[in-house]
Design goal:
The protein has about 325 residues and is of the alpha+beta class. The chain has 2 domains: about 150 residues, Pnp Oxidase, Chain A, CATH 2.30.110.10; about 130 residues, Winged helix-like DNA-binding domain superfamily/Winged helix DNA-binding domain (Arc Repressor Mutant, subunit A). The protein is built from 9 helices and 13 strands. Strand 2 and strand 3 form a beta hairpin. Helix 4 packs across helix 8, helix 5 packs across helix 6 and helix 8 packs across helix 9. It starts with 7 loop residues before the first helix and ends in a 14-residue tail after the last helix. The structure holds flavin mononucleotide. Flavin mononucleotide (FMN) binds next to strand 3 and strand 5.
Length: about 325
């Protein structure tokens, strides 16, 4: 391709299709100052000997210090380290100020709570256009089961693992395109909801609670004092509502009590029951993490939050500070 035709911006964009992890590379400058930057150019080179590489823009403020450094550390960031990535992608501030560094085998700073870390000795530095390519021998490494942060098309992302084969809920032949089928988003979300609620049902049954009672107790755990009308506004999107009879039932069960002014509140046993439900919901989440893996559960939560925001019919904010009644 002739030089004049080369579109730098399109080139950058095309490179962004190559999904990478995100690392922070650290070293110590000759004057003892810790240096570091966010880099996604990290890659493996060789298993035997163990070699890795990364590249540094020649415009980087730390280029001289890295050129002098005998050792550098690579930190593969985990999903909850996005803020740290942003800090190390900025110039000129004290990037290490809130970090409790750990001791490594060299003088290069070692950052905690990463998915993986590689402590390296620089073996060779190559010129690479507007970057310098550092190749290092891995002297030590460690890994934690923390799902990694991902970078794609200029944005942070999360990974959701794809099974070797497409997941199909049934082994039946595919349903005709025009009918309800197991690949409809609404069906998938609805079924997941009911199957998770099914795991709650044992403890709800023990207390003879219906779904609407469970939802009402959950709302009242967050919003302490509510009229029946207010409570039902919060429940509206579930398709459930509480009748006077339901309220009487919860009062008789000593789960809620009526205050003077038509306002209801959880009793202490109502609070205890609700805490029990929350504990069960957390236990179910732990089971799901065990079954699906932490990374997939975190990616799923992110997608569900986006979906909840997009499909919100304008509900009152359950977590908003309540007016004093
Ligand atoms: C996700 C991400 C990946 C990056 N990868 C690299 C890289 O591989 N090499 C590089 O030189 N800069 C990279 N940068 C940019 C540097 O982090 C940024 O220029 C930083 O300010 C450099 O710091 P310094 O000038 O203090 O050394 C990346 C930034 C982000 C957000």
């Amino acid at each position: 391709m002739a030089q004049a035709e080369f579109d730098n911006q399109a080139f950058r964009q095309a490179l962004g299709s190559f999904t990478t992890g995100v690392t922070i590379i650290t070293a110590t400058a000759p004057d003892g100052t810790p240096i570091g930057l966010t880099a996604n150019s990290f890659n493996s080179v060789s298993l035997d000997p163990p070699l890795v590489l990364w590249s540094l823009a020649k415009t980087s403020l730390s280029v001289d210090a890295f050129n002098e450094a005998e050792h550098w550390n690579v930190h593969v960031l985990s999903q909850h380290q996005q803020d740290l990535s942003n800090t190390f992608a900025s110039r000129g501030e004290d990037k290490f100020k809130d970090i409790s560094l750990e001791d490594g085998i060299s003088n290069a700073p070692l950052i905690p709570d990463c998915s993986a870390r590689f402590q390296c000795r620089n073996t060779v530095t190559h010129d690479g256009g507007d970057h310098l390519i550092f190749i290092g021998e891995v002297l030590d490494f460690d890994q934690q089961t923390l799902p990694p942060l991902v970078f794609q098309q200029g944005q942070y992302a999360m990974t959701a693992r794809k099974p070797w084969e497409d997941v199909s809920l049934s082994s039946q032949p595919a349903a005709p395109q025009c009918s309800y089928n197991e690949d409809l988003l609404g069906y998938l979300i609805g079924r997941s909801h009911f199957q998770i609620l099914y795991r709650m049902r044992k403890i709800l049954d023990e207390q003879a609670l219906e779904d609407s009672h469970f939802f009402a107790l959950s709302v009242m755990n967050i919003q302490q004092r509510l009229t029946l009308e207010e409570l039902n506004t919060h429940l509206d999107y579930t398709g459930h509502s509480l009748s006077e009879m339901d309220v009487d039932f919860l009062v008789r069960q000593d789960l809620i009590k009526k205050l003077d002014d038509d306002v209801y509140q959880l009793t202490s046993s109502g609070q205890e029951a609700s805490l029990h439900h929350i504990a069960q919901a957390k236990a179910i989440e732990e089971e799901l993490i065990e079954e699906l893996g932490m990374g997939d559960v975190m990616a799923l939560k992110l997608m569900l939050k986006r979906l909840i925001n997009k499909t919100d019919p304008g509900l009152p904010d359950l977590w908003q500070e309540q007016d004093k009644k």
